[in-house]
Design a protein that fits this description.
Elements lengths: L2 H8 L8 H18 L7 H9 L8 H5 L4 H11 L3 H16 L7 H16 L17 H20 L8 H6 L8 H10 L2 H11 L3 H12 L4 H8 L3 H27 L3 H7 L3 H10 L5
Helix pairs in contact: 1-3, 2-5, 3-5, 5-6, 6-7, 6-8, 7-8, 7-12, 11-14, 13-14, 14-16
Length: about 290
């Protein structure tokens, strides 16, 4: 299939009479992009389709091509296809964008914001990641800074101290436990409000990476395969991460429950046939794609 045919299949406009000029422009655009990133594995037809879908339907496509940040579109296309080198460069750009956020210049905030930005760009399930929306109308770095600014505001809002009785983290992640299941209700009856408080306290002790994993799984519903692509690890590694995280979360919940209730926690958990562990197992078992 030719570059021109592929372009026509994905562009919403009407092909001009001088189709040869358009085909030459497409070939030149491909050469320019490839020259900037010669080590990225992008199929030429895939790139042309990617560009065509982002060009405005009105006007001369040859003139429109000349206005695009073609090298950045090429990088974005490769990153969306999970090319390892492209993902490394995208992560570098995200780190730069996070470092320039106007909300919080601290290192920990920048690191967490970079991770949030990568997640938003690549692995939002059910809808296309934000990187699909990059149209090449400006440089990718500037576009990323704008996206990072909005994410930084949301991240700061999540990190603000909760008002009395308002647990932002717990509210976001409460879907971890089926609070209305008969077994968990029995556990709450025996431990009072201490069980839910202990669970939220255990969540609050988790480091940023583990919290990101939980949000990806329970809030966004990202599969093991999607998380593996984001972190560039094997899917088996992600499975192990969640096994370790479940074990740590369960143990912290037990410790917090013992401290808050003064009860024999092991006996308490055994009394409901280990349903706390079972509840976490139900949560962490998500079919991978």
């Amino acid at each position: 299939m030719s570059l021109l045919t592929t372009f026509c299949q994905h562009w919403r406009g009407t092909v001009p009479d001088d189709a040869n000029a358009l085909e030459r422009a497409l070939a030149a655009a491909l050469d320019t992009a490839h020259a900037a990133h010669p080590d990225l594995a992008v199929d030429p037809l895939r790139f042309v389709a990617h560009v065509a879908a982002r060009l405005p339907a009105e006007g001369d496509p040859v003139a429109s091509l000349a206005t695009l940040a073609l090298t950045d579109l090429y990088l974005a296309c490769a990153a969306l296809d999970r090319d390892g080198r492209a993902l490394t460069r995208l992560e570098q750009l995200c780190a730069e964008a996070a470092a320039m956020n106007p909300v919080d210049p601290s290192g920990p905030f920048r690191d967490e914001l970079k991770q949030e930005l990568m997640i938003a760009l690549l692995v939002r399930p059910g809808t296309a990641g934000k990187l699909e929306g990059y149209r090449g109308l400006g440089r990718l770095g500037g576009w990323l800074r704008a996206v990072a600014c909005g994410l930084a505001l949301n991240l700061r809002a999540r990190k603000q101290p909760a008002a009395p009785g308002d647990d932002h983290l717990g509210a976001e992640l409460d879907v971890l436990i089926d609070w209305e299941s008969p077994e968990v209700r029995l556990l709450q009856l025996q431990a009072g409000t201490g069980f839910k408080q202990a669970f939220h306290a255990a969540l609050a002790q988790l480091p940023p990476k583990e919290l990101n994993l939980l949000r990806l799984r329970c809030v966004d519903g990202v599969s093991d395969a999607g998380i593996a692509a984001l972190y560039r690890v094997h899917r088996v590694t992600v499975v192990r991460w969640f096994q370790d995280l479940k074990t740590a979360l369960l143990e912290r919940t037990r410790r917090e429950l013992a401290a808050r209730s003064g009860l024999d926690v092991d006996s308490l958990v055994r009394a409901v046939d280990g349903e706390l562990d079972a509840s976490l197992n139900r949560f962490f078992h998500v079919e991978s794609s």
